[in-house]
Write a structure and sequence with these properties.
By secondary structure, the protein is α/β, with parallel strands linked by helices. Helix content is about 35%, strand content about 15%. It contains 10 helices and 8 strands. The longest helix has 12 residues. It is globular, with a radius of gyration of 18 Å. The two termini are about 35 Å apart.
């Protein structure tokens, strides 16, 4: 007798969250420099003259100085709720940002523990095109869901299976649908009641030479950590942790 066929169950695709305007309701580098302008105006103006991919590392150096004020950044409530939903169903969540990986780790532990990280490294800055190239190398096309701000994330959104974008216009939605991407607009933030402190990453020792610098090894990069960062989120309800590895 032929045994009955078992239903094929496929693991849900990962949710890739662009921190820069997607999880955070602002550009963290611009907001960080704005918060430091009164503290170190000369150093901030000097840092803004550097190449754009290196500005996040200049911001990290300024925030690491003793007495530097830590900017408090608004968080999108809808993005946090969506991350919790994905984790509840066991889907991996990946944070991607132009922030250095040690700074991104603080935001991860405050907002969505267990998420994987794609942060900037000295040898791998992450601009908009760089993010798209990295996601294409790791997941291919239609291999992930994407949550971001519509501005500066179009290349990555076109690679996704489903794109949930803040600031998505009707014309942009039609263009994504024409490209085969299921698109939806995140609700507009009318004054977020959640915020998180942007920290320099002090207390985290990142060994950039622990693995070859390839996209495949980024998923398995060793989590740095001599101690857990402080949890500075205001009013964030932590979701239940799901599986945080790639299926």
């Amino acid at each position: 007798m032929v045994p009955p066929l078992r239903p094929f169950r496929r693991a849900p695709p990962p949710l890739v969250v662009d921190v820069d305007g997607g999880l955070l309701a602002c550009d963290p580098v611009r907001a960080g420099f704005r918060g430091l302008l009164r503290h170190r105006p000369g150093a901030v103006l000097c840092a803004l003259r550097t190449d754009a991919p290196q500005r996040s590392f200049a911001l990290q150096d300024l925030l690491a100085e003793p007495g530097a004020p830590l900017p408090r950044l608004p968080v999108r409530r809808a993005a946090v709720d969506m991350i919790g939903l994905w984790q509840r169903f066991g889907a991996p969540v990946v944070l991607i940002s132009l922030l250095p990986e040690a700074m991104l780790a603080h935001l991860r532990d405050a907002l969505c523990p267990g998420a994987l990280l794609f942060g900037a490294r000295p040898s791998r800055p992450l601009g908009a095109a760089d993010k798209a190239d990295l996601l294409a190398a790791v997941y291919g096309q239609c291999g992930f869901d994407f949550l971001a701000r519509a501005q500066h994330s179009w290349e990555s959104a076109l690679l996704a299976r489903r794109a949930m974008l803040a600031g998505l216009t009707p014309l942009g939605k039609r263009r994504l649908l024409t490209g085969g991407v299921r698109a939806s607009a995140l609700p507009a933030e009318t004054g977020s009641d959640m915020s998180v402190l942007l920290r320099a990453g002090a207390g985290w020792e990142v060994d950039w030479t622990s693995a070859p610098n390839t996209a495949e090894n980024d998923l398995a990069a060793a989590r740095p950590g001599t101690r857990r960062p402080s949890q500075d989120v205001s009013g964030a309800a932590h979701s239940r942790r799901g599986r945080a590895g790639r299926s």
